[in-house]
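Moderator note: this is an archived Q&A kept for reference. The question asked for a predicted structure of one protein chain; the sequence and the answer are reproduced below.
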Amino acid sequence: MREIRVDPLSGHKVIIAGERSERPNGEPRCDEPAPIDVELDPFAEGHEDRTPAEVYASRPGGGAPDSPGWTVRVVPNLYPALDPESKAPAPDANVDLFCARAAKGAHEVIVNAPDPVLSLADLPVRSVEEAMEVWRERMRHHYGQESCRYVQLIVNERREGGASLEHTHAQLYALDFVPADVARERERYGAYAARTMGRDLLEDLLAEEVRRGERIVAVDEEAVLIAPYASRLPFQLMLAPRKPRMGFEDDGPLGAKLLHEGLSRYKRHFGSSPPLNLWVRTAPSGADRFCWRIDVVPRLTHLAGLELSTGLSLNIVAPEHAARVLREA
């Protein structure tokens, strides 16, 4: 199979070249990571004094802030990319060529559980649901601020996925602008609704995927899990609610059980949880039509010259094959 596919949600083009996985050393692999050294883990329960003071925590049994007894804990990032007090730089003499602005916003770390594990897949389903409930609560909090235009929540797992600390955690970025890729998706949702007399792009996409079945990995009462038609990297997954809702921060099902199942299928297929990036795509400011989703991208291959020079992705595992393998896992 050699095809150039267009992602219906983002418009990104992807080359699907499944036979390239048959090259020497071409089959994606995943090595077993070393366990976390709890004594060096600043996110472990009992090490609350090793992080900035918490701004939010789930404490079912009560207790004082910055003490043990939490199930999910939120702290400011120790090395923030964004700062609400960031000062604007002096304007450059040639603003047409060199334009900069203050990096205002918030950058938080959400410790998903006190358990010293590397992946959400290593937690009980209930712990994943509790973590996602806090993701939602913090997104809702920041969207309540007048300056916030978009909230991006991400999870990086393992060093290869960009995690500087191994203990499972999420990061939240509250931005005062809508990133270009997100704005592009907002426009595609609006354009699709205009062409189809108000229909929802992701809802129609999921209905067609379920009808065809070849890229479906799993379905439950809350959500659908698929290998996207134009997956940018091998074994990419997308989770979306069965009933469309614009914002992840809105009330309604989270899809925690199905997300945990998808991550567990990775673990069973590869023998361990792979390095990965996970993010929540929610409705940006100004959207009239949108539906939230969660994207999961294992980091089993490296970005190379084509991707870096063009932004064009080259996927060596066809999503239909990935879905079949994960259904069987």
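Archived answer notes: The helical segments are 125-143, 180-195, 201-212, 256-270, 305-310, 319-328.
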